Amino acid sequence: MKKFRVPAALLLLAAILTVACSVGRRPFRHLKPEQIVSASVQLMPPDKTLPVPDTGALAELLQTQVVYRRDNSYTEYAGQAVIFTLELTDGTTRQVMAYNPFLVIDGVGWRCEYQPCEALNQYANDLLRNGS
After folding, report:
1. For 80, which DSSP code?
2. DSSP state of 1
3. What is the tens place of the pLDDT at every residue in 69-116?
4. Which residues pair with 37 in a beta bridge?
5. Across-strand partners of 103?
């Protein structure tokens, strides 16, 4: 019976690590609209920068973002990137790039959940279409 304790414990540990690595986290879960002093978005292409008029909507979208693991292979992808620059009340500036299936936060790439990241991209493109 003792022979099975070590392999069973190792299997249990492996299962726990697998589950822990597959659970996402929300880095902007606690961001409140009133914490954002100003925000802008740069869309590439078409290489346009626009102000973000509704920081409440942006904060709501950022709160839904889910990241899983660090992954800087976004540099090998082609597509449209939308880069949000946020100036916060504490004096910090944060930069968030939605580049599905990646979210790049302050220069660090993360694999992310597809739908919330796509919603962030769509929000930026709606601002561009509406001429905001």
Report:
1. -
2. -
3. 999 999 998 899 999 999 999 999 999 999 999 999 999 999 999 999
4. none
5. 98, 110
Phi first, then psi: give them for residue 103, nearest 5 degrees: -125, 125
Beta-bridge partner residues of 68: none
What is the side-by-side strand order in the sheet with 93-99? 48-51, 36-44, 81-88, 93-99, 102-105, 108-112, 67-70
On whether the CB atoms of residues 65 and 103 are closer than 8 A, the answer is yes
Task: Write out the E strands in the chain.
Answer: 36-44, 48-51, 67-70, 81-88, 93-99, 102-105, 108-112
As given in the structure block, the two tokens for residue 78 are 């082609």
Nearest of 99, 49, 53, 93 to residue 74 by alpha carbon: 99
Which residue, among 74, 66, 63, 82, has the nearest Cα to 109 in the 3D structure?
A: 74
Say if CB 108 and CB 72 are below 8 A apart: yes
- Predicted TM-score (pTM) above 0.85: no
Q: Which structure tokens are listed for 54?
A: 């509704």
Share of the chain above pLDDT 70, in %: 82
